[in-house]
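Reviewer comment 2.1 asked that we show a complete input and output for one of the modelled complexes. We chose the zinc ion case, as it is the one discussed in the main text.
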Amino acid sequence: MTTGRPTRVRTHRRVRSRTARVLLALVAVVALIATALVVVPMLRPPGPRPLFQLPVSCGETWQLSTYPGHDDYDVDLFPTDGEAWGRPVLASYAGTVTVAGVNGSVGGRNPGNPEGPRGRGGGYWVKIDHGGKWETQYLHLLEPPLVRKGQRVAQGDQIGRLGSTGNSGAPHLHYEQRRGWDKVETHFDGEPSGITTDEREHIVKRTSNNCQPG
Ligand SMILES: [Zn+2]
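Response of the prediction step:
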């Protein structure tokens, strides 16, 4: 004997399975779009190396150094002349600021209290995306950065002042160049710095050609 009830149940099942198919199709489309937007750019090879300049004022000579336990390719910059505190820190190349804030903790070191409590990590820092998977990082700045996240900067724009925030012994600029996920040997004005390992102390001197056009 038929009552009509089973038919209704079957109809509901059909509607539910159609909804499930539509949802599955939607999920597949979203996954495809996510793949196109996220994975494909990740697989793309890096672009050519930008013509990075020393992140300090045009014409000044600075000491580039590393020490055991620093990390391969990391560079610490100290001026060879004059006071280090507060010296302008400049963008090595044009790009977009992706980080402008605090790495770890700031601590209490400043020109009035150079031996104040050490912070942790990089202190005030800036990261700039130069496109083509190239980025630069600037750590231990004296004060909050002079730029903000998302801001476009030109080569030579001042992004902060040199300091000793974070885990820093003396006022200096810790600086890195990265290609994709990897740190690489820093190049300045087209020349490799020669700082490729932290197995031993190593110091070179370079003069900044970070001279803004005009
Ligand atoms: Zn360093």
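Residues 70, 74, 76, 174 surround zinc ion (CB under 6 Å). We note this here for comparison with the apo prediction described in Section 3.2.
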